[in-house]
Design brief:
The complex is a heterodimer of chains A (876) and B (189).
Chain A: H1 5-21, H2 26-42, H3 58-63, H4 65-70, H5 75-87, H6 89-102, H7 108-111, H8 119-144, H9 146-150, E1 156-163, E2 166-169, E3 174-176, E4 182-184, E5 188-191, E6 196-200, E7 206-209, E8 214-220, E9 223-236, E10 244-248, E11 253-256, E12 260-266, E13 269-276, E14 278-283, E15 286-291, E16 295-297, H10 307-310, H11 317-325, H12 330-333, H13 347-350, E17 356-363, H14 366-370, H15 372-381, H16 384-389, H17 393-406, E18 412-421, E19 432-437, H18 440-456, E20 460-464, E21 477-483, E22 486-490, H19 493-505, H20 515-525, E23 530-534, H21 536-547, H22 551-563, E24 568-575, E25 582-589, H23 596-599, E26 618-623, H24 627-641, H25 645-656, H26 660-665, E27 668-676, E28 686-692, H27 695-715, E29 723-729, E30 732-739, E31 742-750, E32 753-757, H28 760-772, H29 780-785, E33 796-800, H30 803-813, H31 819-826, E34 830-837, E35 840-846, H32 863-866, H33 868-875
Parallel strand pairs in A: 9-10, 20-21
Antiparallel strand pairs in A: 1-4, 1-6, 2-3, 2-5, 5-8, 6-7, 7-9, 8-9, 9-12, 10-11, 11-14, 12-13, 13-16, 14-15, 17-18, 17-23, 18-19, 19-22, 21-22, 23-24, 24-25, 25-35, 26-27, 26-33, 27-28, 28-32, 29-30, 30-31, 31-32, 33-34, 34-35
Chain B: H1 16-37, H2 40-57, H3 67-84, H4 86-91, H5 109-112, H6 115-128, H7 131-142, H8 147-154, H9 158-188
The chains are: A alpha+beta (876), B mainly alpha (189).
């Protein structure tokens, strides 16, 4: 029985529907695409891209022959080749050989017909070809080893997706790279500032690059190695079969099969974190096997951070978080070494009244308590705005109360909290000191004994049981309220009453809902010894009101607003180990889209430091998100201070023909460094290193500047003798700005950086440092100055090692040696640093304040930032 | 005498365009090839063939103004080529289809062939049509394009497409009937 036409039609229709629903698995698609991309890049037809860029001799001509035979050679080159082979006998022979015997059907791909490919045949040939190649290669590799294979062409990674910018960098030039652009064996690429990119390897592995990371590839028979010069990458390794995928940083080697992991390489060392699968990390002669959720760093000072934090910048963070979420143990992996007095939470913080504006937490260590007032004073001083606000009588009372409580240290728990509220008028309230009690009875009896002793010193101590009902005394009284296992003291009843209601509210305490509380609590979670926190938003608002009464004050307010200074939210200063040697301060901002907080880039690699030698005396390096928007903010702030500024600026731009934003700021990248590196006499050997993405525009700007200088000189009746001289020394081009009086300074370009110095000798030294890897970052004195925390990189650092230069000078001066100078010689290197983290900046310092007296507050000239009255004068 | 040597700058990014095309369209090509051939292995071959041809012929051939449409069509044609190849035709004689359904003859044909087998038969039948007819059928019924889109892709009018489709359907019906009979008979033997 045969189906009717109608039955057939409906069957066919139904089958069509099913065929339309057929869809390949996404993994099949990706795998197939990876293989095909690989095949494409090794196909003879692609060799076109391996053709010599310039034809310089017979070798180059002969390299064109295969493409000529394929018919893929461009018309112009075909003509050239034909022309050349008529004249040149060796090349004609080579061509003849190619025509007769060179390729006898060994290329199944070009031999295939466009229609009706006999696939089985191709597959067979492919296998045969592959087999013979494998045998041949195996023999050759036995003889020549990896060197031969390493130089084999065909490896090509592709920029799969990117946001922002990306560059090919080499010694001589920087070329922008687009999506779909290829990266060959040995080529170096760098993701631009504020950019990220996804690069795909021929095997289908994906590499995600964080902003300003720099990588290159090398490929040999064993597999592919990703060289991470610096920065942070996340690798999603495809199944490697019998091959390997490696990631090499300066200090470790990671080998993988099919995994997802992150490698972060910075000034402090490298950190490898695994999201999924297993990797092996080799460093310092040891092998470590890491499983998902685990992490290893090459420097013990580089403390663990959650694996999630290592992939938080990724576009695929959701996927990684989910993978990591499945691992319940992840968080426990992150354990910090506990030092005496370090606390990870505070019940005292939780009972603070809602109007708390300054909070100080100190460990109950005899060494600290003895000195507690000095410690508090010093910490407060680091933020002039807070010091300005919390001074006078309130501060004096605070010392008195803290001293009293400190005397009873043996009865109290592990922490003492000192706080001050902000009043409705914006003034500091009376100080409040709170402590946990380990022995309330002992505390009470010991305090009672002191009542009479204090009275003789003119201080009345009033032990109260309920602040709400206690009577206010008329004389100078210290009220101490003992409740359960807590004691609180103040010179006024109001703070105690506020504390009482906050404690009664328990978890409903309104203070717990403030962002100020959240910031302090987050700091505790990382472990603190001493902590000082100030709610700058409220404190500054009060200062702002004061300032607004005068016209000059209003102009200042406008300028601060442009710089984002009134967006300051909180200031938190903490020290993890205790003492002065390792402190950090966090400034958080209520708006992160403009002003200072928006300038500094997130901590990232500082390629600029590669040009600085270990002997550097002073180094300041920083990275910004966008030079252009920083310039914008500064110019508009200047505009609101001085009404003539915009006009002056306009005049400058018209006279010189330089558009500051377009010609000067735009070609620049985000990294800057300035160093005194080398002999100080006869003139200091300074170095300026600036990341430059657009060399051509930058050079034009310099040319315009020189022209403008000559014009100005001519106007002043001086000879217009400024010019830029170009010199080439061993392949490197140096530019020197000269005048009739001699050379002014020289500069050169290397690896997408412009390096400037007083003369070519210093420049050559800088390049030598960079090429040899004999750099500051790798020196022991620099490493010793690094803080012990979880940051691989910084947004800004100021490093000083005056000992390196002051030593010789001090000995020259003999007995006349200056005291300060001697102190400088004896103190080691010191460092101040800043780490931008979204809406906050962390400042820190190591070393004993440093010979230059660095501390978190005056770092980067930001001392002015905290003292609003000084900033305009100071920074402009 | 040394021959004159001139220098020519190579066209920058000679292959960038291909990588971009591949990235943007490989999924579509692979999906189309998979639908048409019904096999991931064949689809991979199609993907490779399509882009290799493109690589050899250069960027200007046929790609503009609509690379996606061009690649779509190229994928369909390369897939049909694979279905037509002799090795494939043999493979299609139901060696890989489940045999149990075929052992009950004489009933409603729909019951006798599993949907996988029907897909094999229809794919093969389409491949047996003339190349133009096969292309139009695949674009219309496998890929779900409407007549105007097909007309645009093939650079012809909707009228021509409608006529081609009508004739192709008639031929396809015959072809499917023939294949059904052949396969049933083969199963008898």
């Amino acid at each position: 029985m045969k189906p009717t036409d109608k039955e057939l039609d409906s069957m066919i229709e139904k089958t069509f529907g099913e065929i339309r629903m057929d869809a390949p698995a996404a993994s099949d698609t990706e795998r197939a695409a990876g293989r095909v991309l690989n095949a494409l890049s090794t196909s003879p037809a692609t060799m076109m891209s391996a053709l010599p860029e310039h034809i310089r001799g017979c070798d180059d001509f002969q390299a064109l022959i295969p493409a000529y035979m394929d018919g893929t050679l461009s018309q112009a080159r075909t003509l050239l080749l034909e022309d050349h082979t008529r004249e040149c006998i060796p090349c004609r022979k080579a061509l003849k050989l190619a025509r007769t015997g060179f390729r006898t059907g060994t290329d199944p791909l070009t031999a295939s017909k466009p229609r009706g490919i006999a696939l089985a045949t191709i597959r067979r040939y492919r296998w045969a070809a592959a087999a013979s190649v494998i045998v041949g290669v195996a023999l050759l590799s036995l003889i020549f080893g990896d060197r031969l294979l390493g130089t084999r062409g065909g490896f090509e990674a592709v920029v799969y997706a990117m946001s922002g910018s990306m560059y090919h960098v080499s010694e001589s030039q920087t070329i922008p790279l687009q999506t779909g652009g290829t990266i060959k064996d040995g080529q170096k690429i760098r993701a631009g500032k504020d950019s990220d990119a996804m690069v795909r390897l021929p095997d289908g592995s994906m590499i995600e690059l964080k902003a300003r990371s720099e990588i290159s590839f090398s490929h040999n028979s064993d597999g592919t190695t990703i060289h991470l010069d610096r920065g942070n990458i996340i690798v999603q390794a495809a199944d490697q079969g019998s091959h390997h995928l490696y990631v090499a940083t300066g200090d470790c080697m990671v080998s993988v099969h099919g995994t997802i992991f992150s490698v972060d390489s910075g000034v402090k060392g490298s950190r490898v974190s695994v999201v999924q699968g297993e990797v092996q990390v080799d460093y310092a002669g040891e092998k470590h096997l890491l499983k998902s959720g685990q992490q290893v760093s090459t420097n013990p000072e580089l403390q663990p951070v959650p694996v999630t934090a290592q992939v938080s910048w990724s576009n695929n963070q959701g996927q990684y978080y989910q993978l990591l979420d499945n691992l319940k143990f992840v968080k426990k992996e992150v354990a910090y070494t506990t030092t005496d007095g370090v606390r990870y939470s505070s019940d005292l913080l939780n009972m603070m009244p809602a109007n708390t504006a300054v909070y100080v937490g100190l460990p109950n260590l005899s060494s600290v308590l003895k000195d507690s007032n000095r410690i508090i004073d010093e910490r407060i001083k680091k933020n002039p705005a807070v010091a300005d606000w919390w001074k006078g009588e309130g501060a004096a009372k605070r010392s008195e109360i803290v001293n009293k409580i400190a005397e009873l240290g043996q009865y109290i728990g592990n922490e003492i909290a000192v706080s001050a509220a902000i009043t409705a008028q914006g003034n500091p309230g009376n100080p409040l000191v709170v402590a946990d009690l380990t022995n309330p009875a002992g505390f009470r009896s010991s305090l009672e004994q002191q009542v009479s002793a204090s009275a003789s010193q003119g201080l009345t101590i009033d032990i109260i049981d309920n602040p709400a009902t206690a009577a206010t005394a008329s004389v100078n009284t210290l009220y101490v309220w003992i409740t359960g296992y807590n004691a609180a003291a103040s010179n006024s009843l109001q703070p105690l009453k506020d504390l009482q209601s906050a404690m009664a509210a328990g978890s409903g305490n309104p203070f717990l809902t403030t962002s100020f509380y959240a910031d302090i609590n987050a700091t505790y979670q990382q472990g603190v010894s001493e902590i000082v926190a100030a709610d700058l938003q409220n404190i500054l608002a009060q200062l702002r009101t004061q300032d607004a009464s005068t016209t000059a004050g209003q102009a200042r307010i406008a300028a601060y607003d442009k710089l984002g200074l009134f967006n300051l939210k909180h200031f938190i200063l903490e020290s993890r180990q205790g003492g002065d040697s390792n402190t950090a301060a966090v400034l958080s901002f209520s708006q992160s889209d403009h002003g200072i907080v928006s300038w500094l880039a997130q901590p990232g690699p500082m390629g600029t430091l590669d040009f600085i030698s270990p002997d550097a005396t002073v180094v300041a390096a920083f990275s910004v998100k966008s030079t252009a928007s920083m310039v914008d903010d500064i110019l508009s702030a200047l505009g609101s201070i001085s009404s003539s500024m915009p006009q002056d600026l306009n005049n400058f731009q018209t006279e010189t023909g330089i558009d500051i934003k377009k010609d000067l700021a735009a070609p620049l990248g985000g990294e800057y460094a300035f160093a005194i590196d080398g002999p100080l006499a006869p003139s200091p050997s300074w170095k300026l290193v600036v990341e430059v993405y657009d060399q051509a525009t930058f050079q034009q700007t310099i040319q315009k500047l020189v022209t403008a200088m000559n014009t100005q000189a001519a106007k002043d009746g001086k000879p217009a003798s400024f010019s830029v001289q170009q010199t080439e020394i061993s392949g490197q081009t140096y530019f020197t700005l000269t005048s009739a009086a001699g050379d002014i300074f020289s500069y050169t370009f290397a690896n997408a950086f412009m390096v400037a110095a007083p003369n070519k000798g210093v420049l050559a030294n800088a390049l030598k440092s960079q090429q040899s890897g004999y750099t500051l970052v790798h020196s022991s004195q620099f490493q010793s100055a690094l803080p012990s925390d979880g940051n691989t990189n910084f947004s800004a650092i100021v490093y000083s090692n005056l000992g390196a230069v002051a030593g010789p000078i001090a000995s020259l001066m003999g007995g006349l040696g200056h005291k300060g100078l001697k102190a400088a010689v004896s103190s080691g290197p010191s460092m101040a640093y800043a780490v931008a983290q979204g809406d906050r900046i962390l400042f820190g310092a190591t070393g004993q304040g440093g010979p230059l007296g660095f501390n978190p507050a005056n770092m980067l000239g930001l001392s002015g930032a905290f003292s609003p009255k000084g900033i305009v004068k100071h920074s402009l | 005498m040394q021959p004159a040597i001139r220098e020519i700058k190579m066209e920058a990014g000679a292959r960038d365009w291909l990588d971009t095309l591949f990235r943007d369209h490989h999924e579509m090509v692979f999906r189309t090839a998979y639908r048409t051939t019904g096999s991931a292995l064949d689809a991979e071959d199609v993907l490779q063939t399509v882009f290799l041809r493109l690589l050899k012929s250069g960027r200007d051939t046929g790609l503009s103004p609509n690379p996606a449409a061009y690649l779509h069509r190229a994928a369909v044609n390369a897939s049909l080529d694979i279905l037509r190849s002799p090795g494939k035709l043999r493979a299609l004689t139901l060696e890989d289809a489940g045999a149990e359904c075929l052992q009950i003859p004489g009933l409603n044909p729909e019951a006798q062939f599993s949907s996988d087998e029907m897909k094999l038969i229809v794919r093969r039948a389409v491949a047996e049509l003339g190349s133009r007819a096969a292309e139009v059928i695949a674009l219309k019924y496998f890929e779900g394009l409407d007549n105007s889109e097909i007309a645009e892709t093939l650079g012809t009018s909707q009228m021509v497409i409608a006529v081609t489709l009508h004739r192709a359907r008639t031929r396809l019906r015959k072809e499917v009937g023939k294949l059904l009979e052949e396969t049933s008979n083969e199963a008898y033997r």
